[in-house]
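User: I've been trying to design a sequence by hand for this structure and keep getting stuck. Would you show me what you'd pick, starting by listing the structure so we're on the same page?

Assistant: Good idea, let's start from the same input. This is the structure you sent:
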């Protein structure tokens, strides 16, 4: 099976040298085994004039996703395991190859990565969110949330920018909104990510290895993951036709749900089914790969 990983263009991970957690605020968090998320958790912010230096991390809650300004110049959002354990890159700026680069939340609302020695007056910007402008906004900030979403509130007409890497419950129900690219879930031993290349991929937490994928990378339109009312779990285009590119073929089972289990298996169950109960309609066959 051919598996395209999010990290195919990512150079080897470099450890962060320092950790900062600025301006905690309430955000959303995910409760395992529920169809919807619940309130709670924290956000760490960079306000205008604040920088994320080379080697620093922004971490709202230890053990939750973190934003790392790597010493190679790449800005990365990671899902984490135990301290010092494997990490999964959920998004990255693609600016590696610029050692010593840093990130700056500017007064004009733009969030910019500058080369070492660069700055607003001297140039050297290698990436930015294009959120600068004249729009009044008293909440200018770059934020990383406990659910893994990194976002910037700026001054542009389209003032909001996001990586869309927010964590979803590990139970996928027909009553939920569909996943979009960047969304992800986790169990005790696995991550499941709808990548920006449209591939739905499962990674093993103990070593970060990809062990299953939907094989849907490369579609022109973005794909959404959705559990239909009829119990069929699909990846479909988010355009007007919503063409289905992958499905479990479990239609005809109203209120079925998908579950990313602690044993590493991704299973679609009948409404009354579940671990220890039976009623499995489809599975990824990854229970023996942990």
């Amino acid at each position: 099976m051919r598996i395209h990983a999010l990290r195919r263009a990512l150079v080897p991970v470099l450890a962060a040298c320092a950790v900062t957690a600025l301006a905690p605020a309430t955000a959303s968090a995910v409760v395992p085994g529920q169809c919807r998320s619940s309130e709670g958790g924290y956000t760490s912010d960079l306000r205008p004039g604040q920088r994320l230096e080379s080697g620093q991390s922004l971490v709202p809650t230890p053990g939750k996703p973190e934003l790392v300004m790597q010493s190679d110049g790449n800005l990365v959002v990671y899902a984490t395991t135990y301290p010092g354990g494997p990490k999964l890159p959920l998004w990255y700026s693609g600016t590696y190859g610029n050692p010593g680069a840093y990130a700056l939340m500017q007064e004009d609302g733009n969030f910019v990565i500058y080369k070492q020695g660069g700055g607003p007056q001297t140039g050297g910007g290698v990436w930015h969110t294009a959120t600068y402008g004249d729009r009044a906004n008293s909440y200018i900030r770059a934020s990383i949330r406990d659910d893994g979403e990194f976002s910037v509130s700026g001054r542009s007409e389209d003032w909001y920018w996001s990586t869309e890497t927010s964590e979803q419950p590990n139970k996928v129900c027909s009553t939920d909104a569909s996943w979009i690219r960047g969304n992800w879930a986790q169990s005790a031993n696995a991550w499941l990510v709808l990548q920006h290349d449209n591939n739905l991929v499962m990674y093993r937490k103990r070593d970060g290895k990809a062990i299953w994928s939907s094989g849907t990378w490369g579609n022109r339109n973005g794909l959404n993951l959705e559990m239909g009312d009829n119990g069929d779990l699909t990846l479909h285009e988010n355009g007007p036709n919503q063409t289905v590119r992958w499905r479990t073929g479990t239609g005809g089972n109203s209120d079925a749900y998908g579950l990313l289990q602690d044993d590493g298996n991704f299973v679609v169950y009948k409404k009354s089914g579940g671990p220890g109960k039976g009623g499995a309609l489809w599975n990824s066959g990854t229970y023996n790969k942990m």
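That's my pick for every position. To get oriented when you compare it with your attempt: Confidence is low (pLDDT under 50) at residues 1-28. The first strand starts at residue 18 and ends at 20.
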